């Protein structure tokens, strides 16, 4: 997929969800379309293989390396 290729499309979104996304965009100083692109890319990655996203697993692994012994104690 070419990063610069853009295509317009129209859809309908729950007004509460759209309001929240607009607020996030404003709070982060980002464009709404950028957040929509990010959300769609996350959805595609999530559904591709039915596996957790790679950055989520990397964070989990890092946490496990740091707090593994604590996790074991909590499990007991």
Question: Topology, pairings included?
Answer:
Layout: H1 15-28, H2 32-49, H3 54-75
Question: Your description of this structure?
Answer:
The chain contains three helices and no strands. With 76 residues, it is mainly alpha-helical. It has one domain (15-75). Helix 1 (15-28) crosses helix 2. It is elongated. The relative contact order is 0.06. The mean pLDDT is 88.
Q: How many helix segments?
A: 3
Summarize the main sheet.
none
Structural class, please?
Answer: mainly alpha
Q: Indicate the low-confidence ranges by residue numbers.
A: none
Count of discrete domains? 1
Cα shape: elongated
- Average of the residue pLDDT scores: 88
What oligomerization state is this entry in?
Answer: single chain
In total, how many beta strands?
Answer: 0
What is the terminal-to-terminal distance? 48 Å
Q: What fraction strand?
A: under 5%
Order of helices and strands: HHH
Helix coverage percent? over 70%
Rg from alpha-carbon coordinates:
18 Å
Summarize the structure.
This protein has 76 residues and is mainly alpha-helical. The protein is 71% helix and 0% strand.
Structure characteristics:
76 residues; mainly alpha; elongated
